[in-house]
Amino acid sequence: MNALQYLYMRIAGLALQYFRLHKSLTIQFEQPVTLIIGSNASGKTSILEAISLLSTGKSFRALKIAEMVALDQELARVKGVVQTEAKPSLYDQTAAALAENSLVNQEQQTLEILLTKGLVNGQRAAYRLFSVNEVRRQQRKATGILKVVVFRPEDMRLVEGSPGRRRSYFDAPLAMLYDDYEQALKSYEQVLKRRNKLLLLVGEGKQSKSVLEYWNINLIKHGEVIQEYRRKFISLAPTVTFPIQLQMEYQPSVISEERIKQYLEKEIAAGHTLIGPHKDDFFITYLHHDSAEPLNIALYGSRGQQRLAVLWLKLVELAYVEQQAVERPVLLLDDIFSELDPPSQSLILDLITTGQTIITTIDPDLELFLHARFDGRLQVVRMEERSLTE
Q1: DSSP string, 318-355
Q2: Cα atoms found within 13 Å of the Cα of residue 384, Cβ hemisphere only
Q3: How many CB atoms lie within 10 A of CB 302?
Q4: Do residue 227 and residue 276 come from a single domain?
Q5: Contact, 333 vs 358, CB < 8 A?
Q6: Which of 27, 104, 212, 377 lies 20 to 30 Å from 46 when distance is taken between CA atoms?
Q7: Are 231 and 93 in the same domain?
């Protein structure tokens, strides 16, 4: 890798207008580490949500776009100034030592998303409008510029939670990095919905099986793309070092012409599609001294071991994004220190050595702890000092 290829992404400023509880809020991010302190319902998580929204075009909280617009408003605006700094690659130690703090190149872009509830001044309007440097862009050309990895308390349920939650663990980084993955995922979901309706009609004798042929072909086409990317993602997991030895075992519901034929009668009887990426799952195994074979940590691991496994999953995600983008993503930590024991907290803090990290907390004691750890590199934002109607 060329010494000039490694990129450091950071968000330099964020402006919110009528976004959730924030009537007007502006933050300048001046240090590599930012700690946002505030009580519950003070708008901390909304700040991370807005940054993630600029990255992916999607909320990690809202089921509907309208939920992000203030109750008494028709429009909300999220605007961020993003800087990409090219420095000597971390993988070129000689060059890094010679020019540790030098910037080879710096690019600045302004990203903006306008959100609506579907109506503006009584007229139908798009729910999202994207702009880059004040020029309107399609979503696929406006998102993915800013790379982020989000770690939330909800992620603690990745191990023992539903297969759908684990599939979203795949989808977030892959859709952010690859347009063809996101398009395959959207197309697959559309085909799946249509195919399920037809399966019901075939089962009721209102349509012949032949109407499924076109949808079968497209289900396989998009499903194979999705599963190939998921396999590549998992292949990186063994390279991520961790205090305990963990492995991720992918359980794809393989989609192929042969399997479509094999399950067709069962699907007609059930009235929905029984195989494909929407049925994918994975589990994590660990080595135990009483067992000759690796054990499923969701079934046999302690609560502490399961939390470590979740932490490992986020490290895998961070490593994958960094490796594939050749760029250090912004790390967003949403009030997770209260969920972790001291050894796990130390593992997280060890990540905050390069790039930008933004942390939210309700615990004022965390400020003293982080000041001791990141003296001169820490910025503190206190939500109580910023009115939500600022």
Answers
A1: HHHHHHHHTEEPEEEEES-GGGS-HHHHHHHHHHTTSS
A2: 7
A3: 9
A4: yes
A5: yes
A6: 377
A7: no
CA-wise closest residue to 337 among 316, 357, 321, 317: 357
Q: Which residues contact 178 (CB under 8 A, 6 or more apart)?
A: 229
Give the CATH number of the domain where residue 358 resides.
3.40.50.300
Parent domain of 249:
156-322
At 29, the amino acid letter reads F
Distance CA 299, CA 160 (A): 8
Pair 12, 360: CB distance under 8 Å:
no
pLDDT digits (tens, 9 = 90+) for 232-281: 999 999 998 888 889 999 999 999 999 999 999 999 999 999 999 999 99
pTM of the model: 0.88
Distance CA 8, CA 328 (A): 5
Structure tokens, 381: 């934002």
Q: What is the distance between the alpha carbons of residues 214 and 200, in angstroms, rounded to a whole number? A: 16
The residue ranges of DSSP E strands in the chain, in sequence order, are 6-19, 22-28, 33-37, 75-87, 105-116, 119-120, 123-124, 128-132, 135-137, 148-151, 246-251, 281-286, 295-296, 327-328, 330-334, 357-361, 378-382
User: Do residues 82 and 133 lie in contact, with contact meaning Cβ atoms separated by under 8 Å?
Assistant: no
Last residue of a domain, one of 303, 322, 341: 322
- Identity at 237, one-letter amino acid code: A
Q: How many domains does the chain have?
A: 2
* Model pLDDT for residues 344-378, shown as the tens digit of each residue: 888 888 888 788 999 999 999 999 989 988 988 99
b/e map 166-196, b = 16+ CB within 10 Å: bbebbbbbbbbbbeebbebbebbeebbeebe
